[in-house]
Amino acid sequence: MPAITERTYVGLDIAKAQLDYALDETHLGHVPSTPEGHATLIQLLRTLPGCRVICEASGGYERPVVTALLAAGLEVCLVHPGRVRAFAYAEGLLAKTDRIDARLLRRFGHHIDLRPSLAPDPGLVVLRDLLDRRRDLLERKAVVDAQRQTAQPTLAAWLQHEQDFLRLELPALDAAIAAAIAQVPTLRHKAMRLQELQGAGPVLAATLLAYLPELGTLSDPQICALVGVAPHPRDTGTSPKPRHIRGGRKAVRRVLYMAAVTAARSNPVLAPFYQRLHAHGKPAKVCLVAVMRKMLLVLNRLLADPTFTLAH
């Protein structure tokens, strides 16, 4: 692939009904957030040399346009909104409109070295949608269970109907997730490989496949930082402070935490590791985060190295 000698950065602010773009500080425009609007935008961007589109995740509204841009062969960088907002504060920019944000995104992409997004695998798109639905159902189940504890008879009857529905829906959804993985040979192989680690069950395997496709392709420090289990130092001068984890992919970290609870009890290697840390005075949550990090490193190695085997 020939090196790009000229790069054009385009900021794209995504809303439900409209896409605002900035080709530079003065050339601004917008198109409707529809397939027709996507086609118009793609036609414009194809005329720009070395076009790189910078946009934010926006609660799912970004998915159709990002998919269309990637399918058209355009380079897209999908960035976390918090990073862009911090960049705005660094500039002293407090105002916020769609046009201002489009210009801000263009400047952010120009000054920050970003990793281009990859076109999503269709199998992963289906798997991610199913897992999103599963997470919604689990959250709703927790709400219903809490409400039933104090509900009066009239409300309790309605909550019982919903609880019965959730009791049937969750197993059906788990079966659909398993079927989605089984239909794609690469996903099926990776899921089996991940579950070689005792404590890593089908839910964790599916979650890693859907929300952490980089697993097995990045270094250990990179993958830990991506998930949010890498403790960050906050030392100042001669005043060291406790290190804490922050950021990362919450959907992965939640499931990994529950898997670590199981591994800390039953895994022949990780259980003694947890107990050793706890015996040295480490708080339980710190010990569990350490188990999470150990698990993630092993899982990363399992996918990165086909010859790697676990000692039993």
Q: Topology of this structure?
A:
Layout: E1 8-14, E2 18-22, E3 28-32, H1 35-45, E4 51-56, H2 62-71, E5 75-79, H3 81-91, H4 98-111, H5 122-148, H6 153-182, H7 185-194, H8 202-211, H9 220-227, H10 250-266, H11 270-279, H12 284-304
Parallel strand pairs: 1-4, 4-5
Antiparallel strand pairs: 1-2, 2-3
Describe the structure.
With 312 residues, the protein is α/β, with parallel strands linked by helices. The protein folds into 3 domains: 8-111, Nucleotidyltransferase, domain 5 (2-Layer Sandwich); 122-182; 184-312, no CATH class. 57% of the residues lie in helices and 9% in strands. It has 12 helices and 5 strands. The protein has a 5-stranded mixed β-sheet with strand order 3-2-1-4-5. Strand 2 (18-22) and strand 3 form a beta hairpin. Helix 5 (122-148) runs antiparallel to helix 6, helix 10 (250-266) crosses helix 12 (284-304) and helix 11 packs antiparallel against helix 12. The relative contact order is 0.07. The model has no long low-confidence stretch (mean pLDDT 91).
